[in-house]
Amino acid sequence: MKENILKLTIIFLLTISLTSCSTQNKAIQNKESINLKNFKGIIVPTDSINSFLQSKMIEQNIPGLSIAIINDGKVVYHKTSGYANKEKKLPVTNKTIFEGASMSKSVFASFVMTYVEEGKLDLDKPLYQYLPYSDIEHDDRYKKITSRIVLSHRSGFPNWRENEKDKKLIIKFEPGTSYEYSGEGYQYLAMVLKHIEGTDWNGLEAAFQKRIAKPLGLEHTTFIEDDYALENKAQPYKNNGDWIDLKNDYWYKKDKGVFVPAASIRSEPIDFSKWMIGMMNKKILTENSYNELFKHHSSLSKPEAETQLYYTLGFTTANEPFTTTYFHGGTNDGFTCFYLMDVDKKWGYVLFTNSEYGETLGYRLLDYLIKETY
Asked: Among residues 323, 325, 334, which one has the least CA distance to residue 369?
């Protein structure tokens, strides 16, 4: 949850992909696919991708991984590998739940649009008119912050106040005039939705289940950890392979029982892919809502850069050949992940890990899945 988008890393890795021509304790196994296609429509042999993932898990010391790949709006490849718990030698299975970290933002943005469609929320109405925010009322500039500004990271809020000197919420620039990745902005918007619903955090979770999860068939995707997640959740590990004790983890304790729209989603690839496919098929929301979600709002790269990156409302996208491709990574303590979907091709993938290298692997996988030959 301390995550910031690493713009230079993203640009570097995407540039590699654009210009490319071309053992864990438990072997990767599960359902095989004979028609798995990459981003360019080229068949990828199953043993080739298995070998790629296996080698990266060893190279990057990733204890456990779960992945799904989508072709033509359907999951055609689903793999689990490694350990959910190294100490107890418990393997990752189809039931294993991971923290989705900042991939939460994309899902939350789609949730927000259901309120916009119902006329309960206006993307351009200042949030203070729904709910004043006592933590920042000393700075009158906060009255310019809207849902659109929050979802595109232009609120002026820091990522998290804990990263600031006095650990207090501040505004770093005039809202709407610049970009700074901010979980704090998303949290304020969640507070507004909670107020609109007239409920508590559990009530907002119930609203998410009703508006997004159940219509799309998501069975075990939640923003607040439930009994199923607690029973089946992978254990988190540092980059050196050491286990992280969540009972003593600051962020885990701080956000326990709280709907954190920027970072608290729990899921696994098959469930998460149902949301991705819903976005590809433009289910639940209207065409106008999808146009708003996918519209460029913030530029993340310098004008002279070959690869131009943009932030929409909850999604990252890029220039050719990724103009209809939307993606997001995520980094929580001991959990990292990544998804990418092309809404025109109806192609994509999502992977979760209980390590600190999953987001990097997500970009490396894009490099692999854009090659011409295997």
From this structure: 325
